[in-house]
Amino acid sequence: MCKRDFQPGGVKAVKVDEQKRNIVHLDFQNGFEGRITFLEENIFRYDANPAGEFEAYAKPINEKHKARIQQRPDESNVYTKPKVQVLKKEGMSVILCGDTSVLIEQAGAKLQIRFANRLVMEEAEPLALEKDAAVQTLVRRKGEDFYGGGTQNGRFLHTGRKLQIVNESSWMDGGVASPNPFYFTTAGYGALRNTFAEGAYDFGAENAGNVVTTHKEGRFSVYYFLSAAEDRRSVVQEILRAYYHVTGNPMLLPAYGFYEGHLNCYNRDAWSEESGDKAWIVKGSASHTSKGSTRYESGMATGYRLTEGLHSESLNGERPKTAIENYPETVDAPYEYSARAVLLEYLRYDMPLGYFLAERVLCTGRRRGRRRQQPGTDCRGGRQRGKFCKVYGICQQQRGGVRTLDREQLIS
Fold it and tell me: Can you give the pTM of this predicted structure?
């Protein structure tokens, strides 16, 4: 928790801007200044900064970076910028805008958000800022579930978990590859922290009654998106629609992108029944209640080299025939650890599959320091290209898109 000296204290004044009636200025007792800006009745931005500075866009990690979180400035005429009014009621300053009510406790500056007469968000503690940390602590409501945070490998429901909003460049289970400082809940709100700084979101892992979101910077800036829908599906749809109104619509995926995809590096890792870097319990087509069998995976990183007695992953269950100077003679390539075997499992059980990448870096030569070159992984015109592409149908670039192969071609 941050020190009390860095919390805003009580509220001294809450005033609507004389020129821009969709903006409210906040003056806190500890010298903090804040601002609430309504873009739509269900979308508003909340900023707090001890220095009283409210940058339109988040500061990039690198000065050369030009990316922005918002697609347009808050002053854009695309937004309706509805007028707001401020009232005082029972020790609270109340900011009203249509069906939205933002309540700020005058004594402690804790925030509440109500939408369509429903409480959707409530701070458990006052906002806390330090030089290198902005922390918001919320009340976690009973039955509330949490989603978002970008690519959090292996999970999309985050209730009771702690997320790292950090690019770990990790594609393994539990790793983070493409973080996003946006989350939304079934209680009826989404929050987009306007920052590129590293962060962490705790959705009840350390304290089941609280949600704690932190970013490593000394200012607080967030967009809130609200929904009053009764069912969860509609809540999600309305929140995402509001989110895209600020960030811009996502790129439309190709047809295969709406289905499950399988990505792996079948020219990199090794397996053993005895020991390894990571243990996996494999149950195959058996019941989920079955004991299963344990398999150990090693590698999972660039630069890994095979050691004696291991089973190598492969494309077709075959040992390589070229660049084998670092491929031990006692290492085999069993069919069960091949890309073909995994792909055929999808077909055997009729599982929908949009795409299958047997080398997820698009066959550009991630070879463990030339530990080996898998047969058929040269997609730049080498002699092995045909075999790989005929089997998997994912590297043959043609006009209008990527060639795909049907079931009979894959099995043959």
Answer: 0.77
